[in-house]
Amino acid sequence: MAIQVAEAVLAGINGGIDGIGYWTFSDFPDNVEKEYTNKWGAMRWSDDDHSARDLYYGVALLTRNLRGPSAVLKSTGSDGLLRITSVRQQDGALSIAVLNRRAKAVPVRIGLGTAVERPFRRFHFDPAHPPRHPFADLPPADGLKPCPAEGFTDEIPGMSLAVYTTDYEDMAPSTPAGVTVAQRDGHRVASWQAVPDKDLCYYRVFCGDRQVGSTIATELVLPADANGPTTVRAVDDSGNVSP
């Protein structure tokens, strides 16, 4: 289903629509109906499970990298089963999405007719191996693709989505300061000072090596079984993580 939704998004962008909406939650809690109904939301709705469904990771990849306001560029290809969308942001950043509808991997050459100074960050979504995360964090880029005048090459696995973007910053965000843990209403609560970075997206909270949460707030109730020193890392809009 993730590939179907991604394909619809790319078609909508190429068609010139102003926006696309997708339900975040399903109609009813999952535990009301375990079969086909209620499986279309991006997030589960259950008494003890609000995790992201697999399709979320594909939709979120497009949402982050094909954002507006932007200009849709004309995209052409020699294979009708490769769905292609490209956009240019107001600051000149470029994003290209290629969805392979074939069952097998397809080698591609992507050219823009001119060299691009900044390398493309490459992201890949394979619905057969979704990058599941307990707090729905998106994975980092899996590589860089320099783009000389003749373009660059890649291979896109069957029934999967590749996204390339120059819409990113290289600098990591500031490290959150003032991390403290205090008792409140019978719970341990971690708190910290907000970082000043304008492109801050959210915070990741760790107890020892274990990530115990992701939040846009500046405090988090820690799980009762969390052990080890508490640390907080900031994540910016580019996916960069503070030290």
| pLDDT averaged residue by residue | 91
Spatial strand order of the main sheet: 1-2-3-8-5-6
Q: CATH class of the largest domain, please?
A: Mainly Beta
Radius of gyration from CA coordinates: 20 Å
H and E order: HHEEEEEEEEEEEEEE
**Biggest pleated sheet:** 6 strands, antiparallel
Described by the principal axes of the CA atoms, the overall outline is globular
| Tally of helical runs | 2
CATH architecture annotation of the largest domain = Sandwich
* Helix fraction bin: 10-25%
Task: Offer a few descriptive terms.
243 residues; Immunoglobulin-like; 3-stranded antiparallel β-sheet; 6-stranded antiparallel β-sheet; single chain; mainly beta; 2 helices
Protein described:
With 243 residues, the chain is mostly beta strands. It folds into 2 domains: 164 residues, Sandwich (Immunoglobulin-like); 57 residues, no CATH class. The strands form 4 sheets. It has a 6-stranded antiparallel β-sheet with strand order 1-2-3-8-5-6, with helices on one face. Strands 9-10-13 form a 3-stranded antiparallel β-sheet, with no helix packed on it. A 3-stranded antiparallel β-sheet has the order 12-11-14, with no helix packed on it. Strand 11 and strand 12 form a beta hairpin. Helix 1 packs parallel to helix 2.
